[in-house]
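Problem 12. The chain below contains 344 residues. Write out its predicted structure in token notation.
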Amino acid sequence: MNLLGHSSPLDVLCPMHLVLDADGMILHAGPTLQKMFPEGSPVGRNFIELFEVKRPPAFAIAKALPVTAEQKLHIQLRQEPHTSLRGILVPDGEGMGHVVVNLSFGISIVEAVRDFALTNADFAATDLAIEMLYLVEAKTAAMEASHRLNKRLEWARIAAEEQAFTDTLTGLKNRRALHTVLNRLIAARAVFAVMQIDLDYFKTINDTLGHAAGDHVLQTVARIMVEETLEQDVVARVGGDEFTVVLPDVRNEENLRKVGQRIIDRLEEPIPFEGTDCKISASIGTVWIQTGTPPSMEDLLSDADVALYASKNAGRATQTIYSPELREAANAVISPATRNRDFA
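Solution.
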């Protein structure tokens, strides 16, 4: 069988084969290998010049030419993209001293198809490499689809969690989110402060101008509180006109009072609504957790309520920082039910 003819059967059966002479010179190259050398045919060049032999070492090949038995190869293109190939050397069987090297891409087939723009026509009809390539492509497509689905599910989960922790009217955190934050800070024995804020005269707005005006006021109040606090602070709406601000890492009382006073001053400014000025103010009860064993969340919020009542009792539009004496005074003069009614 003529191995060097233009219509050699090996070009069809083994499109990635080479024919070498006894010195390793390439006498013939299959069509697929020709395609891998777009800058010039490998024919007439030395095998070792084009391919780096990984196993066995290059000198072993030189000794094996001409070969009398098959010799397995692991090689790599010396030029970019340094594609890895597997092969086998066999004698030509015609006594010419020639060697046939049949090559394959192995696990490098996916990269090779991309790097050399190979198609079905570049492989033998019986080569399972194409079927493997189809399987790889199908698996890749399935994994990409799965990744996209998982990403959509993750975004949906995040959106659901965000909705569960968000007040729909104002966009602030809700009571559930507040409790999560407070429990985390208490467990960490952190230094932080909590402001319970109740809007003064809000019920009058709802009763005289309607719920649309009330909603507008609440949304404006929420925006103001966010503007007057830091990004690390947590602002939550926990009831109709009740808000809570959590300030992590508060180190001195002066800063705490400044934040409260800024909120009070801003909320005393009239809020326009359809040609009418809505006038409210804010009373604040503040608890500052410093060192030692922190109280439970329930006791912490109860202390903030006591300080808030003291602000209401002092004439509203003021901030009171909790002390144990405030609770003693509150318990002596008023019941919880009466206190709640007075907050309206």
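Discussion. The CA atoms of residues 70 and 90 lie 5 Å apart. Students who got a different answer should revisit the alignment rule from Section 12.3.
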